[in-house]
Amino acid sequence: MTRVVHFEINVDEPERAIEFFKTVFGWKIEKWEGGDPPYWLVSTGDRKDLGIDGGITKRMSPDAGVVNTIGVASIDETAEKIVKNGGTIVMPKTEVPKIGLLLYFKDTEGNLHGAIQPYEGMM
Hints:
2,3-Dihydroxybiphenyl 1,2-Dioxygenase, domain 1, 2 helices
């Protein structure tokens, strides 16, 4: 079964957004070393509770907003299904070191999403 496993909030001013989410929601936000462009990991609460964690990144395109990333068993099979069913691959399969294989796609309505095939034991 595939589920949303991560979110990304694309922002114009990361420091301003980080302060906003820390202050309003009490989220724990730490810079991820090695991210290029810079990336901040967001912990939204206790992992025992309902919910997911995510990240904050600098907006790379004017239409980038909040992106939900869906965990999948096979990134290659998922890419094939996306295209076969009318979606488009925006960023082809890319390795995220120590995390897994990631791609970004648009659905039939033009919404941006991520799909990730995590490495064993990562999710």
